[in-house]
Amino acid sequence: MMDWTDRHCRVLHRMLTRRSLLYTEMVTTGAVMHGDRERLLGFSPVEHPVALQLGGSEPADLAEAARIGEAEGYDEINLNVGCPSDRVQSGRFGACLMREPELVAECMAAISAAVKVPATVKCRIGVDDQDPEESLFRLVELCANAGVTTFVVHARKAWLKGLSPKENRDIPPLDYPLVWRLKRERPELTIVINGGIATLEEAEAHLANVDGVMLGRAAYHTPLVLAEADARIFGEGEAVDPFAAVAAYRDYVGSELARGTHLAAMTRHMLGLFHGRPGARAWRRILTVEGVKAGAGLEVIDRALAAIAERAASGLEAQGVAGGLEAGEAA
C-alpha cells in the first residue's frame, strides 16, 4: 500500500478499530538506515498495534532496519515478498524474492535474531511461471525453519513480466483454497489471507479456514468496513459511529496542522469514509476542493461533515413523510 497507508491514514483507521493490526507502507532498508526517520518511521502512539513493513534483500541491512524499527516502537517487523512494482524488482526485493526462498529465509533469520518483536512475512503464492504449490509451500517451509511463525499470503500470483502493478492486483486469479490448504498442512503456523476481500462477511467466511484476514484496498477506499471489525471479528463493543470517528480524527488533524502538516495530506484518506451514504459526493467534493487551498483548516472538515449531516436529516424527513402517507392510506 505504498503512498496509501501513511501515518495519517493509520490514525484514521485506528479511530474505526481498536483491535485490528495496522501496517505501514513498505519502507526500504536504505531509507530506514539513511533517510529521514521521523518522516519515514514516525507514528502516533494511538496507532498500536502497528507493524513496520520492510523492503530489502540484504540480511545485514534488514537486521539493522529491524533493530531501528523496534527501537522506534513498532510491534512487528514484516518483510514484503509480494510487491510487484518495477521499482521493487529493480532493487531485488518484493515479489521477485519468491524466486529466492533460501535468501528470504536467510533474511528472516537475520531479522528474528535482531529483534524481540515478531518477525513475519507477507508473500504471494508465486510469480510468473512458478507452480504455486511448490513456490508457496517451499517459501513457508524454509522461513518456518528459520523461526517464522506468521505468514500473510496474497492468494494470487504476481506476473512480473507483462502486467502492471495495478493489473497484478486484479488479473491473476485468486486461489483461496491453496492458502486454506497451507493452514491445514501447517496448523502450527499463523496463516493470514489477503487479496480481493472486500467485506467483513467475506472475512468471516475465510476465518473458518485461516487464522486472520488482511484488508487492503477495501479498508482504504471504504474505511467504514473497519467500523464493525471489533464487534464482529473480535467480539468487543459495538460498531463505531462514523461521526464519532471523524470527531476523534479531527483532534489529531488539529494537532498536525499546528505542526505544519497540510490538511490535504490528512483528509485525502477520508474521502471514502461515507461511501454509499447520502451526501458522500458533497463530502468528497468539499474535502478535495477546499482541502488543498492555502491555509485550509478544520473548518473544511466541519463543512464537509455538515453536508453529510444535512443530507442524513433530509433523508429521515423524507422517510417520515413517506411513512405518514403510507399510514394514512392504510387507515
Automatic annotation (TrEMBL):
Keywords, comma-separated and alphabetical: Flavoprotein, FMN, NADP, Nucleotide-binding, Oxidoreductase, RNA-binding, tRNA processing, tRNA-binding
Pfam families: Dus
Residues engaged in binding FMN: Q53, K122, H154, N194, G195, G196, G216, R217
Known EC number: 1.3.1.91
Name used for this protein in its record: tRNA-dihydrouridine(20/20a) synthase
PANTHER family tied to this protein: FMN-LINKED OXIDOREDUCTASES SUPERFAMILY PROTEIN (PTHR42907:SF1)
Chain ranges of the DUS-like FMN-binding domain: 1-288
SUPFAM superfamilies: FMN-linked oxidoreductases
Similarity section: Belongs to the Dus family. DusA subfamily. Belongs to the dus family.
Gene: dusA
GO MF annotation list: flavin adenine dinucleotide binding; FMN binding; tRNA binding; tRNA-dihydrouridine20 synthase activity; tRNA-dihydrouridine20a synthase activity
CDD domains: DUS_like_FMN (cd02801)
